[in-house]
Write a structure and sequence with these properties.
The protein is of the alpha+beta class. Helix content is 35%, strand content 24%. The protein has a single domain, classed as Aminopeptidase (3-Layer(aba) Sandwich), CATH 3.40.630.30. The protein has five helices and five strands; from the N terminus they run βααβββαβαα. It has a five-stranded mixed beta sheet with strand order 1-2-3-4-5, sandwiched between helices.
Length: 164
């Protein structure tokens, strides 16, 4: 049985398509202004001498429909590697086709194959459809944890504090 859906690892030839999907995600999250990177940097970070992340592309009938971008993390309590899913996104016109579920399942399969102790990600608190989807997929939403982030000029300021 031929499915119109293909989930596959990205290749260097996919970088511009992947970056366009990232821009579509930012637009959906009303964060287009936060996209300051570019496709060249993304390509270097995915396929350069030291890859920092991996990505999957979802194609529906040959068209890019979504992606998952993830990287390895580590749990000191489990003393096992894990996978952090940075982004999971399906273009609106392709939703309700099982694409998001297939992407998430493939990342989970990779986590199991790599003997990861856990698969984690964050979700915006206003994104009720995503929260419901993740719960349906078996995810536990950890309300007791808050994300901490240092970015912009605060990052080099913090780094300088280490030298003082």
């Amino acid at each position: 049985m031929n499915s119109p859906l293909i989930i596959r690892p990205t290749t260097p030839q996919d970088v511009s398509t992947l970056f366009k999907l990232i821009q579509a995600l930012a637009e959906y999250e009303k964060l287009s202004h936060a996209v300051t990177g570019n496709a060249a940097a993304l390509g270097e970070h995915l396929f350069g001498d030291r890859p920092y992340a991996e990505a999957l592309i979802a194609e529906w009938e040959g068209e890019a429909a979504g992606f998952a971008l993830f990287f390895q993390n580590y749990s000191t309590f489990l003393t096992q590697p894990g996978i952090y899913l940075e982004d999971l996104f399906v273009l609106p016109q392709y939703r309700r086709q099982g694409i998001g579920k297939a992407l998430l399942a493939e990342v989970a399969r990779l986590a199991v194959e790599r003997k990861a102790g856990r698969l984690e990600w964050s979700v915006l608190d206003w994104n009720e459809p995503a929260i419901a989807f993740y719960k349906q997929m078996g995810a536990k939403i950890l309300l007791e944890w808050q994300i901490c982030r240092v970015t912009g000029t605060a990052l080099p300021e913090l780094a300088q504090a280490a030298l003082s």
